[in-house]
Queue: 4 jobs
Job 1
Amino acid sequence: MKKDGYAKVFFSQNRRFADVINGGFCGGRQLVRPEDLQELDSEDHKGLRRDLIRKTAFGTNFVLIGLENQDTVNYRLPLQIMRYEVGEYEKQAKQIERMVRDTRDASQKLTGGEYLYGFRKNSRLRPVVTLVLYYGKDPWDASGDLHGILDFSGLPEEIRDSVQNFQTTVLEVQSLRDTSVFQTDVKQVFDFIRCSNDKARLLDLVRSDPAYTRMESDAYDLAAAYTNTYGILQRKSYYMEEGQVDMCKAIDDMIEDGRNEGRAEGRKEGREEMLSEFAVSLKNLMEHFSISPKEAMAVMGMSDTMRSGLEKRL
């Protein structure tokens, strides 16, 4: 599965979707409630597909909220998000058009323009917003609005001021300073990703927070995928018990494996150095007494293992 596939699975749960929106847009204020979220088709009428989109109620009104995942910097993001949101508005407009033209209520008389365009004077679209989650290590240096990717050079100020702008909202996971605004395991996943570049810091994190000893499977998957720790992802079954995964044990084992590999590499380098020294001695012995490699090894009393390693060097 691709990285964004793990993110889609994780955030498809409404409690997490609501949590990341409240933390990302609202500073932790609990404005979006999981029970108010309604899943929508992520594909618009032109076939453009988003990662996730939900509809949520605020009183008698609704807002459509999109969630997109990025692991590399996208310098055309304002244009991409604008297409997504315009697609959602067009989808709504199509629905209104069908209702307007199918009306059988004689009191709802249409003007020529209302019938022609399928949109009444008092018709309204539901607002659409999008939060982009960026997991990459490189700083997000892309423009945060449409104007930032437009070439205004040489244009009069009056023309420039008439060009409509479009803003984007990007949450840089690696740069988050305060994850206390998140109230679900979104916090543990984001903290894990934030600390992934420092092994000591990561180890301290998973050991100090008991939540890492009983992570849900999809949370474990997302944390591992976006930190490229595929080793612990492949061995997930070893750390799973009753549907939960012990990330603390997985990280402990990963670090210990690294230490063991380092020790093994050190022993290998030491053995290679010793064999090189013996090879020089053998060559000197062979040249001085005009004997074969086998005879020289016998004189030096070498074991079969040593002989096997030296034969490739002579």
Job 2
Amino acid sequence: MAKRKEEGINAESVTGTQIDLFSADQRQDRPLTQHNDLIRAQYDMSLLEMRLFIALLARINRGDKEFSICKIPVSELFYQDDKKNNEDGTDKTPSKVGGKTYSQIKKAVVRLAGRTVTVESRDDKGNREIISNPLMATCRYKEKSGYVMAQFNNFVKPYLLELSGGFTTAQELTLMSFRSFYSFRIYWLLKLSAYKRDVIQSGIPEMKQMFNLVGKYANFSDFKRFVLDVAQEELRTTDMAFDYLPTKEGRAVTGVTFTLLRPTMVNMISAELPETIHNRLTALGLSLKALADIKLRYQQGKLEEEYIHFVLQYYDQLQHKAQIRSLAAIVYKAIISQQLAGEFAHWKENKPVYKSPATKESVQVIEEVIALDELRKGWEAMFRKGLSPYETFEASLEQYLSNPEYRFDVRNGVNCLVYRKTL
């Protein structure tokens, strides 16, 4: 956690009581990981509490053994398109944060500091155990300081640190874009099961228990309006876009069947994307909304075709050696947020392509050369983000040894990886 805990402290601009707000495009998009028991835990939060929780999750590094006190810029908790508060679980703030900043953050800090998380699990023998612990060790804010200082309670270590199994990963910007706590919880619940199935069933009593809604929304129409429909709208442009149907026992609605929108075929929504890209994205299982988002940015000139191919090839190579959970989500976020922009720039700048003259039989040989130092930079960037399945750079190079089209060579005194293919 130490590497990220002061990240972004100087990003905010404070003038009196006026704070400049981030737009989504200005933020880094970091991977967040939780144990599945915490995803199913019982708790609730306001919008600002939820975003503070997300910001803390984003500052946990793989390999951290202890929680550190983190400085969270106040501006990181607000978006320029946030709107006014509603009473349906979708807290929204003004588009500019002025004199009310202190009272808003004060309320969030006090509430979050008092939150408890109740986790129910089973041991190896099937015996149930219920654990209820405070979420935070400390949470404080000084007026006009520009940041909140907060630290997780050590009791939640098993659910956030040194996770070796039974965990799920999501992306920070996706979670920060939600204005509803219910969208946040439902997104994680769907994400938890999405890697193994597209149809996910959940009981309404269980969801109410997790969301602290026991005794509320007795009529399904209210639960549908304030929870399910809100989440469906907010998730429609994410990798967890879904449709749903109520599950009934007699006349009573007892559960919900979620169906993730992962088409096997793509029609006119992605017709204007290059065919090879559209086919690859479809094969990965991106939702129609995600494909439409990529298509729109491509049409607006915000995405290069070569960059999309680079992202697809990058993760294609990674998954040969290790299974990547939710590959569609990782690829989608890398494309939309330009997550690999630095690696792509290095690749473009340092990757010479040699084309040998065609022979009389029109045989063409393509040779691509990349310095090992550049490969190392790419691996280090992915390792820092927790996205590399390889613990060392040397281990990452082993994936090339089984492919006869790759070989290691020295060019002009530089150690290189050479890709040679005859067309």
Job 3
Amino acid sequence: MMESLPIPLLAAALEACPACGGIAEAAILSYSVGPMAAFFGFFAAIGGAMLFLLPFVFVFTMVVFFHELGHFSVGRLCGMHVRSFSIGMGSELVGLTDRWGTRWKISLLPLGGYVMFLGEGERAPSGVEEDGAFFSKSVLARIAVLAAGPTANFILAIVIFTGIFWASGVKEAVPVVAGVEEASPAAEAGILVGDLLERMDGSEIRNFEDVKRIVGTSAGQRLAIEVSRDGERILLYATPELRVFDDPFGESYEAGALGIAMTAREGTEAIRQSLPAAFLEAVRQTGQITWLTLRYLGGILTGQHSADQLGGPVRIAEISSDVAERGIGALFALTALLSISLGILNFLPIPLLDGGHILFHLFEAARGKPLPRLVQTCSLLVGGIILLAVMSFVTINDILRLL
């Protein structure tokens, strides 16, 4: 069963999305206590809960649907019979069966989804698989089906970003240094006011968003920085320091900082993009967000970044509600970010996730036969414990933020 599991939201990815910033403060509705106030307050609370949950359901459903659609589409192309396609987990709420025998359904809990292929649960005891069964296909076909889900998430992000950049343009701030803090990493490195930042950590710098993304995930790491000064290129080295910032949602987070101020020459109008240019920018943004997210995860494993910035479904619901106030464009941008997060998560080689199943199949291809059932069972158990621990951690994080 190809499952989509709840998404840990990464602060590094959220910071990489210019369309999600500047969220207005939420209005607080208060009312006096009394019989009528309590009566109307009850329905007001229900309405408020719906307004809070609807953006979350929209974002989550869209991300999960395209993930499962990837598995479904490639499975069908490989000749596999799809028994069911579910958005949500648990008991079926509503559904229909198509002419190919696939049951399409919406299930009770909007915290994931799955595609169930014929014979996917386990191999036939006789060793002869039924026609159209998952294990009747080649290892390569099965790997393609497993990889199609997270790949679809990256494609969805690129499509959304392409639409945003094509419709709204790209607002860029020229990466010219307008100020340098005393005794900051930038000052110690020799960065001066008026320097044009050209490259950082081997990546081209096109605007200050690029600077924020690279520096923000590089606290404690020595960065090579190329600047243009008086017509010549100069190579400098700086180590960002860890600082505490406030995100657009009023939450504190830690990120690297050099101690430089943005140029006053920031454009006030977005630069319109042709469709091909918007697509290329979308690919670039998706790749950069993916790379920085992976660096952030690596930093957690090495102790360079705090895992407190991870969030789960509760945090996603809160952010979705806030972003929805900025309009449909910002909500789609958040959808793209979460889609990238789901794609990254499912490519990780953790049993129970797509990446773990791909790893099993790679071992099968190398050995010429599947891994022993006991090894797979124990691996899946360990993977389940890891995922349960991660989801428990991020959920506790979410609850503590609300207290």
Job 4
Amino acid sequence: MKSTISQTQLLEPSNCVFPPVPAVAPCGDLISKVDSSSGRFYSIPSTSEKIFYPSVTTILKTYFQSYLARWRGELGNQEADRLFIEAGEKGTLVHELFSDLVNGLTLHYKTTYDNSIPNKIIHDDYIFVQLYKLQQFFEIVKPKIILNEAMLYSNKYKYAGTLDLLLKVEGGTFLINGRNPVTIKSGIYLADIKTANNIFPNYHWQTAAYAKATIERKLVRSITGTMILHTKSKVKNGIEGFSCIVRDKKQMQEDFKNFLKVKSIYDIDAPQEPAVYQFPNSLNITRS
């Protein structure tokens, strides 16, 4: 199987259509997300008191801080802040629009469309290119989406998060990862979309933590492995600029051990609940 896509070709399609996806199964619990100055927390269902668990990404920032400090030192705080916010906003938008795609919306690239069906126009080249790479992966591998953007938590290890994708893959050999075909075993995979320039070890620890919580919540019986769907890879063949990094069950277990090591450091001085900052709904200054 050969699928070679050039960067110029990526900009040619006038729309991005996803095949129909079965209804997403809910987690089954009423979980709410809380962002605060002390990080992101999730309010977890409880019969007695209100319980908050820190998010997986908040926990893993403990590991990531040293890398960020070096990066800021090289760029300067002001430029680093600008790039960090811009990358975060674009990454969030890619995730949101991809969820629209898998839920039946058609995305168009700077063009008119039929108003009678759900659509969105994407004017940003970068955003549309990332989404098109993801669509190519799904057209080639043809996984079944079990869950998309599902909140979940672990009572045993006291953390929570939102998984990107839980996929069922039939298995096979696919040209999606550069020059050499990738063999993916049949099974269920916890996949996470990454739009950063590089892939860091904590990304694998993140997906392993989600996988562990998914099994604990009995959403599936077992998970075969994890996947990072990297939309800013440097590969030229297969799907240009895209990589699928697969971790098997043994690697996933090691990744989870590393997550717990970071969490043990986080727990030393971790807040038990989100910091609350109260402010009025409106501001004004009376001039004398």
